[in-house]
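User: Can you write out an input/output pair for a complex, sequences first and structure second?

Assistant: Here is one pair. Inputs:
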Amino acid sequence: MENKHGRVEFTKAMKKDYTILIPNMAPIHFNLIKNVFTNHGYRAVLLENNGPQVVQEGLKYVHNDMCYPALLVIGQMIDALNSGLYDPDKTALVISQTGGGCRASNYIFLLRKALQRAGYEQIPVISLNLKGLERNPGFKLTVPMLLQAFAGLIYGDLLMLLKNQVRPYEVDAGSADALVERWIETLSAQFKRGRGWSFPAMRRNLAAIVESFARIEIKHVPKVKVGIVGEIYMKYASLGNNNLEQLLADEDCEVMLPGILGFIMYGCDNSETDRAIYGGRFWTTIGTKLVMKLLKKVEGMSIDAVKRFPQFLPPAPYTQTKALDDGVIGYGCKMGEGWLLTAEMLELAENGYANIVCTQPFGCLPNHICGKGMIRKIKEKVPHANIVPIDYDPSATHVNQENRIKLMLAVAREELQKVQAESSG
Amino acid sequence: MKIGLDVGSTTLKCVVLSDSGELLHASYERHYSQIPTKTAEVLRNILPLVGGMSPNLAISGSAGMGMSQACDIPFVQEVYATRLAANIYIPGTDVIIELGGEDAKILFLDGGLEVRMNGSCAGGTGAFIDQMATLLGVTQEDMDHLAAQATEMYTIASRCGVFAKSDIQPLINQGAKREDIAASIFSAVVNQTIAGLAQGRPIKGRVAYLGGPLTFMSQLRKQFDATLHVQGVCPENSLFYVALGAANYAQGNGADIPGLIDRLENYHKHASFLSIDPLFSGETEYQEFVRRHAQATVPCVSPKEYRGPVFLGIDAGSTTVKATCVTENGEILYQRYQGNTGNPVPIIREYLQTFMIENPHLPITAAAVTGYGEEIVKNAFRVDFGVVETIAHFTAAKRFMPEVDFIIDIGGQDIKCFKIHNGTIDNIFLNEACSSGCGSFLQTFANTLGYSIEDFARLGIYGKHPVDLGSRCTVFMNSSVKQAQKDGATIEDISAGLSISVVKNALYKVIRATSAEELGRHVVVQGGTFLNDVVLRAFENELGTHVVRPSVAGLMGAYGAALHAMKQVQKQGTWNGSSLLSLEEISKLKHEVRSVRCNRCSNHCQLTINTFDGGRRFISGNRCEKPVTNAKLDEDVTLRNIYAWKQARLKSYGPVPGAPRGEIGIPLCLNMYELLPFWHSFFTSLGFSVVVSPFSNRKLYLDGQATIPSDTVCFPAKLAHGHVQYLVDQGVKRIFYPCMSYNVDEHHGDNHFNCPVVAYYPEVIGANMGELQESSVDFIKEYVGLNRRRTFERRMSEILAPRFRDITETEIRSASKQAYEALRSYMTDMRDAGQRIIAHARETGKPIIVLSGRPYHVDPEVNHGIDQLILSFGASIVSEDVISVFSRKDKRNVLNQWTYHARLYDAAKRIRNENDMQLVQLVSFGCGLDAVTTDEVREILEDAGKIYTQIKIDEITNLGAVKIRLRSLFAAVGW
């Protein structure tokens, strides 16, 4: 089954009866994407297993100085394989592969090494990338599949945005979450019928989503607003950030997480910046320019849909966010979350989410630069920014993390009271 | 009435305020992690004061957080509480520095409020000072007195207790004065606090010191004053600011104190911590286990009945001294295992005296010494042989299991494991600075909880729900343990849990094993830590196999040394008796310790000179042999050491006087160690006088440390701050330090990136060094790449044109031509020099070490003189970039997309068939990418049957451990 590079390929025959395991990152988005896989004839399972065993397996099979997301993603997969739920001779794994200067681009190799050491060398690993880095005969990202997955991400971003804006204020507890569930079902059903991903359909769906959230009864009370930014896995995955969103909800906060679309646009945009700095032929960026145009159009649709309801804060347009970095950090800083992370913090701070948790794996290289390295500069620009960087790793204790977050919240509450006192007096 | 509680990580503070704010009661005590019980007790004590009232109450502190939720008490974050109190009691204060049991905080009150608190990786706190005091064998109070009398300062890392320990232990072993060590520890704490928390914001104005350590230790305050150039004050009630803040925060309708006491006392009943299966199912299983291990014993012979040769073995370890005398059959005559509170000399002296006086009929035939204190002991007592620890342990283990193929030794401070293949040591794993803290960690922990290590270990046997503490740096475990206790874990559970985690640490962190088969079939465990049955059991459980623990597990180093002495004597044929001091000489042994600074080169090592009578001397702290041999090496070192060659060459790039366009500064940091020839040539030919910062040194680092925003970034990056600061201090008004996503493309990998830190560190410098704006320095950090010359020239025009209107494109083109040529010739010259070194070594029959890393590992402050150490062992040194070009591009099992990393793989591949070459990889602590490279380089080498040696280096590195590693390598390959 091994190809000439010694890699186990996912063959056409495997497509029929192999189960593909997908690691979880952002639950709303990834549930939608999993359903896209299913609709295209793959047996896909989104991994939900968590708990200390995941970390243990990760520690066992991944170099302990490797970043925490690698440890968790690989640990989650090995733990799933060990659970006995999946026949190792009928299971494949899928993992994304980026290919930037950050060490995260090594995940797939580490996963293969780990599988070998754990005795699962027969399991094929599918690389999910848009650059044709590795090919598998049995797995093809077709255009409809890609576009559906993309639509899934857009819907996911919007559902996450609205859920976060509604849930803290809902009168009937649980209504926002229930609505998200309903939409995941509705949208997946549309995908199954081959619908829901054309532009007109997206426009309709986006509008309907916003409208449905606007119908949830809410009671507005002033709450501390907290933005979450950081390394992409740590930011979204509750397995990584020790249920940060829940912790903040328990502390009676409203949270805001910038969407995944921004990260995609950032990745696309960087190839253009790269050409300007390091050279290269014009045609190499024609493709990305076209994609960028498309992304901006979709972004506009989403923003317009939210704008119709003034009670909601629409997502900040990419170009506007990007502009905030001017004079703060160079646009050539493109590894990991790069300049986008700095820009997101600035954007949040200027739009009412001045209290920010910046999440990163312990020792995350890019975040030394664009996370922790830029806080001073951000505070120069937005003095009331109240940022706490939190490192996550298998042994970082919740006590210290929680304590530091509570410190950030104490300052935030004081600020909130001051603002309230000013507006009432 | 208001009550404020501050439950810190080690202490519990309680204050009671009257309605008018008058302080009615204040108490301060250690809680020994019995948090709910102690809190209840403290509250009970103030019940008379409360009477029938229902005072308002709030709780604060890291350990109070969980309890506040469970028992429904209002909680206020501690830093916030401090500020609340500061605003009331010491208004007008600009900065507060507060050190607590496990945390360090700086509060900036003037201007924009900012509060900083240490994150997950930070020592330099009360618990750290506590640990250090234990290490010195003094109380905290004594430590303060000692520090007051210091005359010399040593550099000690305070980033985490384990690092510091590995700095301090050699100092103690080498006989440095406690006064000096104590003061150095304080200075380390100060540096840590500033480097970790100030993050570029200057600490000035009215400074207040709060918290236990700063209240109790005047010398610590003095150190802060001196470093910050301020006159800080320690206000009244400085211990109670958090509690006072909590009391002032308390509001509401009053709390029911007796009810609360009830709730606290019932609190521990809701246990909810992660636990593992118990180690023993019951007493029977434990007894069976004890019986099985009782089989591996060494017979003891009474010295009174023995006549014959006697061999002495000494193991002067990091925290214990072990000595044993054995018969010609290897039976034990006399043994000693004793804690080493500093200087091993008096302990051994006493041991030898006792043995010699009691047994005048048994002269010692030969003696050998091993361990950290090997050299000093050897010098003091004229011991016949010195032996590397690893070899000593192997010799001993063979005695118990001739077919042994794996030995693991967990000692006080280090883990050593060796794989044995065909009767020789085939692979060595030593713990890196970060994962040590093994046996002595358990010991310190037992003491903190108020138990002796023996009692503590015994309790673990009966732990029903051992706490799952994971397997990582043991320093972090302090707070994990606290959390478990908070959640109701018993001492039994914690003892068992800690032992299990020590084992996991050894297995998954140091050896990185996944199964027992991988380790070998015949495993011998040793070291004092394995005398602890819980550790032993956890080890067997984790491996799923039975192992041999010799009865003298704690003594194996000494026992092996004795056997080694015996073997040496047999090997030599004729033996004229031991050179060991006689009883008379031992009795009047004099030992003086002096500390001086070596001035033989620019390193200026802090030397500790031990003098014994008869003119015997032992010098430590030296990085090279100059102070020892007292001679200059006449030989051209650049013919033996590429690091020396690179240093000499890099020093030659200086400013050209009278340059028309003025000065431009280049910080010699990170990738500049390789690109300096390029940029120097580029700007020199454009008519600039290029000012280059010098090689790093301690002072240069400290000068820049206050502006480091991320305390976990690698040390080479941290140094960049010092280099830029140097240039600013020199009055340079223009500094060039470009961002570069891409490195030079050598076409040996799938891409040619720089690592994120190398690529973008200029951004961090620009954003955090306020000095640049204040001194109106033009800091040029634009993005450039060198792989397309045309684009490079265009970029440089874009960058320089707005600054120098008169620079023409022709000039830039010509400068760029020269720059590319300069870099090319530098690389060629360097490789030629490397080839000469290899040829010279082969002519003279010397082995060659490929000391690999990154270009910046050439900096002497980064590599800590490890190259000189290797040189002193008689090997020649080349670097990875000398030989990497001779390998062809290859498919790797990892993504091979960083230029520097591709060189590592290629170098490793290149030496696979060279018997006179071994590779040693330098890895900077915190280098995330080396998590990828180290495994891959190891695989390449081990596939070819070679030994992989990794040396982790940081701000400060314990050369003692490095020495053992290298000597073991040399011994293993038979050099």
